[in-house]
Design goal:
two-stranded antiparallel ribbon, alpha+beta
């Protein structure tokens, strides 16, 4: 397990192509993420084109084609989500 603070931006629907690529790379490792939401895709802007870090794997599980397909199909709507669902909880100004 690697823990590090990642600097970058939270993904949006504008980043769909690179997020699909990151998720498909994870699926090729015979895993499904299990918690695909915009806060689990961190965009590093230091390189062109932008690259994506996929984070938070506590719900990851062995690959099942139907689950992998569902993750890919839901990604666009998850990246468009703006309610904060899946983001950090902030209490008294602290994460």
């Amino acid at each position: 397990m690697l823990l590090e603070k990642l600097e970058g931006d939270i993904a949006s629907v504008d980043d769909l192509t690179v997020c699909i690529e990151a998720l498909e790379n994870f699926h090729r490792m015979n895993m499904v993420h299990g918690d695909v939401n915009r806060y689990n895709f961190i965009l590093g802007r230091s390189k062109e084109p932008a690259h994506v870090h996929l984070i938070n794997f506590e719900h990851a599980e062995p690959y099942e084609e139907s689950k992998a397909l569902a993750e890919i199909q839901s990604l666009s709507s998850e990246l468009a989500e703006t309610t904060g669902r899946g983001g950090s909880v902030i209490v008294d100004g602290r994460v």
